[in-house]
């Protein structure tokens, strides 16, 4: 008896009471917006974006060095061992110091003490960088503080020597 009621409930009595759930579906739209079409579009978009970025990838991997940050400091022959010169890098407002050590190494740092921004000088007798304001000492080899109130290292300026000329090519604020 209960099954007869269920069956009658699901049977169509007239055309007007039939719910037309699939009337808004179109076979052509169903084929147009299916999973396969979506995957084809996604793969096509990925390939297009990959091809569009190839010129930028080529520039990134090219061996052409960007010389925009490169600044000539001095001729190597003009700086004897165990001496220093001042220069400005990367802008004219930022003083820096280049030290040619007793061992013949070239080291360059920002010329402002990391404590209170006083200028730093090369102390030949002890081979250190000295901040005379509060007697702060920095290592010439790595720019780290050795004594006094400074707690942070001097920013390192990266150097290149090409054809007897010294160039500043970059700066590292934290260089460990």
Automatic annotation (TrEMBL):
Q: What is this protein called?
A: (2Fe-2S)-binding protein
GO MF assignments: 2 iron, 2 sulfur cluster binding; metal ion binding; monooxygenase activity; oxidoreductase activity, acting on paired donors, with incorporation or reduction of molecular oxygen
Signal peptide extent: none
Q: What's in the keyword line of the UniProt record? A: 2Fe-2S, Disulfide bond, Iron, Iron-sulfur, Membrane, Metal-binding, Transmembrane, Transmembrane helix
| UniProt xrefs under PROSITE patterns | RIESKE (PS51296), TAT (PS51318)
A Pfam short name: Rieske
Query: Can you tell which superkingdom this protein's organism belongs to?
Result: Bacteria
Q: Which residues form the Rieske domain?
A: 71-168
Q: Give me the segments passing through the membrane.
A: 37-61
